[in-house]
Amino acid sequence: MPVAQRFRRRRAEQDEAGEAPRPRLHAVGADVYPDWEAVYRDNVDRVYRLMFSKVGNRPDAEDLTTEVFLTALRPLRVSASVGEVRAYLLATARTVLAGHWRRTLGREITTLDEEHDVATFEAGTVEAGTVDPATFARAEAILALLPERYGRILRLRFLQACSLKEAAEQLGTTVGNAKVLQHRALRQAAQLAEGMET
Predict the structure, then answer these.
(1) Which domains does the chain have, with CATH numbers?
(2) Dihedral of alpha carbons 72, 73, 77, 78, sign
(3) Which phi-psi region, left, alpha or beta, contains residue 20 (left: φ > 0; alpha: ψ -120 to 50)?
């Protein structure tokens, strides 16, 4: 009888007898996390810094980091090696980020700079607040082409890391209006960025 069938049969017999299933034992090697808390503690900064480098503001980076861990919690095995856990978290971060861009920009952006992001994720060296000068110059060029209010909301939200409420106060508008303004500004900025690439 195959192992899987024997296991299911033994499990069914335990259930009928009212026995509690015995916990499975596994050896914990040096390159394996002892529990979920250790997985979180070792990787939360890595995930947050990666997200911050992609979205450029603290509130969104925090929300996306939380989403990565909540998404990864169920399918991820604690018995996986440190490398497997980090690879899975990076893949989950890519998926979460794609969903964020789809919601924010109305289109899915699923590519990350593989070599750079994997290397910095593994090393944990992405510094919050550091921006590549070429990226900054490109962002400034796009912002200069936007209408004034669009450029202002994006500067407040993503360059000055203001919350939506703070940005709305600065613009003298409601939070709902600021949200719509931000959405429209991001869409137009995405179109301008596509135009620059071609």
Answers:
(1) 26-123 (1.10.1740), 133-197 (1.10.10.10)
(2) positive
(3) beta
**Ramachandran area for residue 129 (φ above 0: left; ψ -120 to 50: alpha; else beta):** left
Lowest mean pLDDT among 73-82, 100-109, 156-165: 100-109
**C-alpha closest to that of 93 among 135, 49, 156:** 49
Closest among 144, 155, 129 to 192, alpha carbons compared: 144
| Predicted local confidence at residue 107, as pLDDT | 59
Q: What is the mean pLDDT of the chain?
A: 76
Choose among 59, 53, 49: nearest CA to 162.
59
Compute the CA torsion angle 193, 196, 197, 198 (nearest 10 deg): 130
Closest to 76 (Cα-Cα) out of 100, 102, 110, 47: 47
How far, in Å, CA of 67 to CA of 95, rounded?
10
What are the tens digits of pLDDT across the range 39-68? 888 888 988 988 888 887 788 888 899 999
Query: How many angstroms from the chain centroid is the CA of residue 131?
Result: 18
Longest dimension (CA), the chain: 73
